[in-house]
Amino acid sequence: MADIKVPGPDGQFSAYVAEPKATPAPGLLVIQEIFGVNQVMRDLCDQFAARGYVAICPDLFWRLEPDVQITDKTDAEWQKAFDLMGRFDVDQGVEDLKTTLHHLRGMESCSALAGSVGYCLGGKLAYLMATRSDADCNVAYYGVGIDQLVGEASNINRPLLMHMATEDRFVPKDAQQTMLDNLQDHPFVTIYVYEGNDHAFAREGGEHYDPQAAELANKRTLDFLRQHLT
Q1: CATH second-level architecture of 2-228?
Q2: Which of 113, 146, 184, 195, CA to CA, is 20 to 30 A from 138?
Q3: Which of 4, 34, 24, 1 is nearest to 99 (CA)?
């Protein structure tokens, strides 16, 4: 487990990397929430590494404030997170993710296959990795704003798994319906709906953490990754 620098066309940015004991192994791009590459994201990388993946989580806020690591525990941190998200350039973020994916595939510890998994803001970006990159598969947990991007769905030609919470305070019911209407019949898209759950139900220690729903979603994710990255 280490922090590294990823070279990109606009400059280098940091990323956290966790590697499994046995390599080469499939690669997994872990995409941050609005709180930066914090302990939650680092723990997720460690957990995926323990499952046999080379996991890398790049700092996507580096142009705004490098190396942000905040939590969801105080109002001040929430306000900072919302400010960063409001100023974040999604298109640049996708390009940084594509750069990181290329870097990941070039690592000696990584085999030929590599996918992505993202949470919250990262869920939206995982969807965009499905529409704009050659990642081998992608997983989106409660992605925000995907309803405004369903027009890109025709570009999806690799498996995409989506986890949607019916009571997501950041994804209104009409937005959820737009996503279902436009994506659930797509041949490469699988959507699981979690009744009664709120946003970030899989964030361990979070306000809306639901152990049962999280366990189910995480099992589905691991089964999906095992199917498409081995």
Answers
A1: 3-Layer(aba) Sandwich (3.40)
A2: 195
A3: 4
Whether this model's pTM surpasses 0.70: yes
pLDDT of residue 1: 80
- E-strand ranges in the chain read 2-6, 13-18, 25-31, 54-58, 110-119, 138-141, 160-165, 189-194
199 is catalytic: yes
Neighbouring residues of 142: CB distance < 8 A, sequence distance ≥ 6: 119, 120, 123, 163, 164, 165, 168, 170, 171, 199, 200, 201, 202
Q: Average pLDDT for residues 209-214, to the nearest whole number?
A: 98
Q: Which residues make Cβ contacts (< 8 Å) with residue 97, sequence separation at least 6?
A: 29, 31, 58, 60, 116, 125, 129, 133
Q: Hey, is 150 helix, strand or coil?
A: helix
- 59, 147, 168, 210: the active-site residue: 168
Dist CA 209 CA 102 (whole Å) = 33
The residue from 103, 163, 199, 208 that is catalytic is: 199
Pairing of strands 54-58, 25-31: parallel
Over the stretch 151-175, which tens digit does the pLDDT of each residue have?
A: 999 999 999 999 999 999 999 999 9
Report the SS3 class of residue 99: helix
In this structure, are strands 54-58 and 160-165 parallel, antiparallel, or unpaired?
unpaired
Residue 185 annotated to the active site: no
The three-class DSSP label of residue 104 is helix
